[in-house]
Design goal:
Blueprint: H1 7-11, H2 17-43, H3 51-69, H4 76-88, H5 92-113, H6 123-146, H7 148-155, H8 157-162
C-alpha cells in the first residue's frame, strides 16, 4: 500500500512558495515550542506541584492554535474555539464540547498569564482541561497537516476567513 507523501512533498512543484514557507514556519514553531517545553520540563523536575507545568501547557497550546488559526485579534478566543471545533470533529455535539473547552482554556490562560489567583481551580480540574485540550489540539494539527486544502487555507488568512 503506497504511503501518503508528506505535506512538504505535496507542496513541491507548486507555485506557492510563500504558502510553503508559511507552513514550514508553523511546523518549525510547533517543533521548537515542543522542544522548548521538553527542555523546560527536564530542567524543573524539582517542582513539587505539577499545576504550573499544566498551566504552561494550556498557555502554549492556546498560543500555538492562535499562530495557526487566527486572522485577527478581534474575538480571539471565540475565533480559535470555533475553528478548532470545526476542524477537530464532524460531530455537532463534540464540536460544541470542544468550543466550550477552548473558551474555558482561554479563560484559564488569561487568569494564569495575568497573575490572577488560581486557588478556585483545583489541580484535578487543570489536569482534565490539559488532557482534553491536548487531544483537541492534536486532532486539529493532524487534520491541518493531512488535508492539503485546509493547509493552504491556514497559510492564506484570507482563504481561512472564507472557509
Amino acid at each position: 500500500m503506497p504511503t501518503e507523501p508528506c505535506l512538504t512533498a505535496r507542496w513541491a512543484g507548486t507555485d506557492s512558495a510563500l504558502s510553503h514557507c508559511l507552513l514550514q514556519c508553523h511546523l518549525c514553531f510547533f517543533d521548537h515550542a515542543s522542544k522548548w517545553l521538553e527542555r523546560r520540563l527536564a530542567q524543573r523536575p524539582q517542582l513539587s506541584s505539577p499545576t504550573s507545568l499544566l498551566a504552561e501547557k494550556i498557555t502554549f497550546y492556546c498560543s500555538a492554535l492562535e499562530a495557526l488559526l487566527s486572522t485577527s485579534q478581534a474575538e480571539l478566543s471565540h475565533q480559535i474555539a470555533e475553528r478548532v471545533a470545526l476542524i477537530s470533529s464532524q460531530n455537532v455535539d463534540e464540536r460544541t464540547e470542544i468550543y466550550w473547552l477552548l473558551k474555558e482554556c482561554y479563560n484559564f490562560r488569561s487568569k494564569y498569564v495575568h497573575g490572577s489567583p488560581l486557588r478556585d481551580i483545583g489541580e484535578e480540574k487543570i489536569a482534565k482541561l490539559t488532557i482534553k485540550l491536548d487531544e483537541a489540539a492534536r486532532r486539529c494539527f493532524e487534520k491541518v497537516m493531512s488535508d492539503h486544502e485546509l493547509a493552504q487555507a491556514v497559510t492564506d488568512k484570507e482563504q481561512l476567513l472564507d472557509a
